[in-house]
């Protein structure tokens, strides 16, 4: 096929597209005219279809032209016939009389057609149709058309390339926005839109409007002047709009548009269709953003704010092009109008348009308009009165309420993308499958001297596991508090409690949402704990604002909301009763702004640089604060963080109010909606409906006979918890005397005393060192840089690789090491490699001295006999304190702060430095400012590391950088971690970085080496119980730094990591994931959280800082309320992984009714501990028994297929 033929085909394609594009453009115009008010998504698809059709028909036309050589022959023959006389008779081509000179002009295509066509009859002028005449007339110009078209395509392609380079420049010059007020809504909206990949958020002074750059690794770029000039609502609206572009892959579609415009630039219909796509695209994203931002009005205001930043006359400029006004009209369902006049008329049109928008908003916007009719003062009085009315039952001398309670997953809402008030309310009417209901009978009753709370959980037929009912009751007779638990046919267990009030606080009366709706004061105690009250802050000290009105419960309700109580109420105008309540949950603690609230300064008498500093003060001063001051500080927390941390969490509707006593109204129906993480996909939520129906409610029931039947009988097991430091167990007898019980308590205390005496005896040699110079650490080996043990206080931690309780201290020590000097001392007898492996596992950021064996049975010169143990050295190197980490931490901080203060005072009094030369001190910066400063100072070294090889190619997910390391690594460590550099100048043995968007982000540092097992745990996010391989091989030490893509997880890394192990490290290892049959524990039954009575909230913790989740204690033979081995908060699956890690056996979940939200868990082990004690602390049967007692779950040992990472060393 000749070039000339292709050029002609291209020319004819351009000519044909003139009419083809026009036809498609007209069809598009008519189609859009038929759906002027349709959803933007439909209009967008119509416009995309039109542009796609234009590109497709041009491609098909070109292909058809290329495949039709005969047509080309006709045209070319016609050109020849112009030089010869026409013949009336058909003449064979080979017999024509043509001058030789003319033959030289015949293109090769004609020679081909002489074979394919045979004969050709040239038409006369009268026989030529208009199409033929057009073809003959245009044929000589085809090459010129193609030339002009080629120049145009080249220029537009150049423009496209320039724009692409400009985009890359914007990506590289933009500065990352690290402010929490931007990052938190970004993370939240990403989850709601199910955007899985990473999205960078940056600022640039080179742009005037927010924009999205990139597709595979998108970047949201925001004008610098907008970063601090937007309200939280406007900020969230902007992010929602830009994330909508990312979710819809608009960047890729826009790129295809640019290609279509470049190739078909000569046709106006292409540009018009493309413009329609862009316009409808913005409207599509506006619709998504408006839905995420609670309606069109708030989002419209955000659009106006963006225009304000673009120009000093934003409305006029925006309206002149019709863009802003038309987008707002589309959001509110209004017909799009073009401006009819200029100047003053244009401004008037904008004003009228905005007035129309406000007039035609949704019911929520109408409610906000109505809010102006009731002031904040009136709304507050209304809410206070409603709460007071709800508390009328507190004063009743007798109360008896039986409730049928049930809960179940809403069948049609098991994988929702967002948690919102709209979805919470919709879940009230959606169906719940009958077999999904869990039924519980509840009873709450009291009289003047007794109180009773019962729960009986029925096992549904869907379980079919042979299980039976579970029963729990708490009661109090003004003398003693008891708790009874029973499951199926198992004998009842009784717990003798120190007080009913604490037991009441730890109960979770889900069936009694009306009890939890307001702070209450009962004769036995207050419901001032998060389990029994949604918010304990007194409604009388907060402010409510009016949001509007709504019909509910058969009357018009005022909707009022309080930031200080994190609640929204629907209050009946006629009755003053609470018909519904929306409660918010707070998360995103990194942006906690409580320390900035005026109430904090008023009560504390000072301002705090951070929330952390405020909470430290609170813990110290809480015992001296009044109840009113504690309430006011609680309100400060909720109010200060409402706008950026509050998220709709629970919606409750109260109905069928009945007056059970004069002035005391009680709702006989209580419907509650909550949600939890869905099992059907990441970023999705399942909704649960909880229904309570009152069977009986009265004020004249005598509880005497019922409570007598609940007391223990002869032979029943009793755990007596009345003496906190001596919990005892015994079999009940009716004639058991208090003297016998006291004797058991004394025996228990004596046993504990002997243990304490042994500990005190072991401490005596160490006590003799107090005030003396610390022994020199000379006989041994330093793992890490040897520090200077004078000039600053030092915390010495005696630990051992074989010591389980020692691990409890690692995280705390790492935190302390950021502000002061910490060293570890390891006793002799353990190989250095094992010590290094333990250091790596514990992620120690401080050096350790491995002591050599001593004839005097000393460890580094210290008479240490138990582990873990701590010693504090003062700045002069003298022993200042010793004991557990808990015992000595305050002394170390005291000494460290004193040294720091002395240094600051000396620097402030130094006359050698003039004010002009004085530089800002990092100590004057906030934590966030210091972190930002350090990051900026370290950035050049990170870039140098990238250039030195710390980068990933496009097809790489992981890379190992072998030593020796580049100089930029040490410089980065010194600049980014100056405090650690002071303690460990040699730096970490291993660094791991995340690599994204061409940038490095520090992930983790390891001091003391790293072994294969730890590497695979980290890279595959897997737990030890799911790794199969020889322990000696898994402990093989590995050197080198690592660079990993953060989005690369699990099996995706397997091939590359295997290649690194085998090719670079010559380990000859095989790794694979496979399902193996292993002995596991299967978790069965229904989850029902019952906190252990001996675990009560820490007295020094602020009430609003208490965990909002179930807290499960993990221990073996014995609990240690004041000890611990770590813990955390996360999904139930995370808890299960940690539980399996603790007992070193995989656990398969087959339980039902799992927690709606996260759970907290705490690990416990004795410290110091013998090997036997450590074994009992981790014994699977003992540990799982304690879990069963708290959760109602059962654990059965079975053999199951488990996904395992198998690591096999080669020969």
Automatic annotation (TrEMBL):
Classification via InterPro entries: Beta-lactam_resp_regulator, DUF3738, Peptidase_M56, Thioredoxin-like_sf, Thioredoxin_CS, Thioredoxin_domain
UniProt keyword list: Membrane, Redox-active center, Transmembrane, Transmembrane helix
Residues spanning the membrane: 17-37, 44-64, 146-167, 341-360
Domain Thioredoxin: from-to ranges: 768-904
Annotated PROSITE patterns: THIOREDOXIN_1, THIOREDOXIN_2
Keyword Transmembrane: yes
Region of interest called Disordered, as start-end residue ranges on this chain: 904-923
One matching Pfam family: Peptidase_M56
Name by which UniProt lists this protein: Thioredoxin domain-containing protein
Organism expressing this protein natively: Blastopirellula marina
